[in-house]
Amino acid sequence: MQSAPFWPFCTQVKVVWRDLDAAGHVNNAVYLTYMETARVETYFALTGGKRAAELDIILARASVDYRSAATLGETLIVEVRPGRVGETSFILTYTLREKDTGRLVAEGESVLVSYDYELQRKRPLPEALRARLQAL
Description:
By secondary structure, the protein is α+β, with helices and mostly antiparallel strands. The chain contains 2 helices and 6 strands; from the N terminus they run E-H-E-E-E-E-E-H.
């Protein structure tokens, strides 16, 4: 993890056997897991959180555009950048590249909503988080 300011925030994921499909490349659904790993690390870096109970956001939307196949043993760099910041939500964008060659593997986007799990409803983004996102 890079120190602040860290945009784009980067994390590495190693492609392991369980990530593969019958064709021998990373299964399409696994890219969402790679993005989730980077998203949680990014969110904790922004908020200082360390535990699942401190994740006061909920995923409202995720999309992936596949550019090239990743295979067993490759290491992928997942870059995360902020997008639009709204009253109750914000966007993160993702770029996944193969570490050694820089080959573009996938691009994605997610919409995160500030969420009160006790009341089961969205809520305004905390001011400190909004300020950090907008500053970046």
